[in-house]
Write a structure and sequence with these properties.
It comes from Nonomuraea composti. By secondary structure, this protein is mainly α. It has 17 helices and two strands.
Length: about 475
Amino acid sequence: MTTAQPVPPHLDEPAVPGTSMTYLGGPPLRRYLLVYILAMAGITAAYGGIGSIILPLHIQDIEFAHWFTGPDATVNLQQLTNLKAQIDAGTATATAQQQHQLGLLASYEAARAGNLSIVTAVGAIATMLVQPIAGLLSDRTRSRWGRRAPYIAGGAVLGAALLIGVRYSGGIGVMIGLWAFAQVAINLAQGPLNTTVPDRIPESRLATVSALSGIGTSGGALLGAVAAGSVFGALGLDSYYPFALALAVTGLLFVLVARDRSSLALQVPEANWAGLLKSFLVPLRSADFRWVWVASLTMAISYAVSNAFGLYMLQSYIQPALSTAEATRIIPVLSIVTLPGMLVSMLVTGRWSDRIGRRKPFVIGASILFAASMVVPLLWPALPAMFVQTVVGGLAIGCYLAVDRALLIDVLPDRTGAAGRDLGLGGMGFSLGGAVGPVLAGQVVGLTGGYSMLWVMAVVIALVATVAIVPVKKVK
C-alpha cells in the first residue's frame, strides 16, 4: 500500500500532469521572485547598456570614420554643433572650411541616426514572431526541467555568445545580422520566462508580481546604462563582454533555482503545424485582447520614438550641446534620477490595482502622463528639460509596466492551455512597436534635419494608446 506524498508547504501542485505548480507564498515564492527579477534584469541590462549606449557609440565611431577623413578627422563635433546653433540663431557666420565641415556634419547626423534606426528595427522585426512561437513550442515541450526551462537557458546562453559577436562587427551590415540574431536568442528566453508568471502565480497576486517584474525590467535597464556609461571609457567595445556574461548567468540561475515540475507527463495533441500557426489568430478574435494589443503596440512606438536617439540628442538637440564623453556620462545619470519614482509608482500602483481589482484607470492615466512629459523638452530644448521629462516619464512608465502585463493576462482567452502562445503574441506588439518606432524616428530626423518633431510624434502616439484602452470591457 502506498501513501500519497505530502504537498510541500506554500505550493499548490498542478492539477494537469506536466504543468507547473502554483506558488501560494513563503520561501518558494520569494526564491522564484528573486531569480525571476534577476533574469529579467539580465535581459534588460543588455538592452539598457548595449542598446542605448554601447551600440549607438559603436555606430557613431563607424560613421565618424566614414565621413570625417584626412584633415577633417580631428574636428571637434561639440564645437561644430554649437557653431551650427549660433549660425541658425544669426549670431555667427561660417568660414568656407566650416561650411564644408557643417555639410559633413549634416550627412554624419543623418547617417548615424538612420543606421541606428535600421540596426534597431531589423533586430526588433526579427524578434516579432519569436516570443509567440517560443511560447507555442514551450506550451507543448516535454522535459524533466519543465516546459519553459530549455528555452530560457538555451536562449540566454546563445544570446550571450551572439552579443560577443556584435563586439567584433566592423561594418553596419555585419552588425545588423549579429544584433538581430542576438535579439532573437534573447527573446527565445524572454517569452517563456514571462509565461512562468501565469504558470505559477495565482490571479490575486498578478499585478503585484507584474510590478516586481517591472522593477527587474527597469532596474536591469538602469544598471545596464550605468555600467555601460562607467566602463565604456575603460573597456571600449570590450564592454559587450560583461553584459553577455550577466545574460547567461542570470538565465541559468533562474532555471536552476526556480526548478519547475517535469513536463514529461504532459499530454499534447498530435502536432498539426498549419493548425497551430492558424491558432495565433484565436486570441485576436477577442475584442478585449485586440484593444490591449493595440494599446501596447502604440505605447511601445511612442516610447521607442522618444528614446531612439537619447545619446545623440544630448550631442545635437539640446543647447549647449554636450561632447560624446559628457553625453555618455549623462545618460546613466538620467536613468538614475528616474529610478526612485519609477519603483515607487510600480509598487504602489501594482498593489493598489490588485486591491481594488481595477486596471484600466492606471494604464490610461500612465499613458496621458507619459504624453505630457514629452511636451517639456519639446518647448525647452535644454539639459534640465531632459531631466524633467525623464523623471515624469519614469513615473508614468512605472505605473504602466506595473499594470499593463496584468491587464494582458486578465484578457487572455485561454490562460490554462495557451498562455505561452497568447502572451507571446502580446509581446509581439511590444516588439513591433520597438521596430516601427526607430524607423519612424530615423525618417523624421532625415527629413527634418533635427530631433524636435520626434517629441511631437511621440506625444500623439501616446494619446492614441490612451484611447485604445477605453473600449476594453472584460476588465475595469
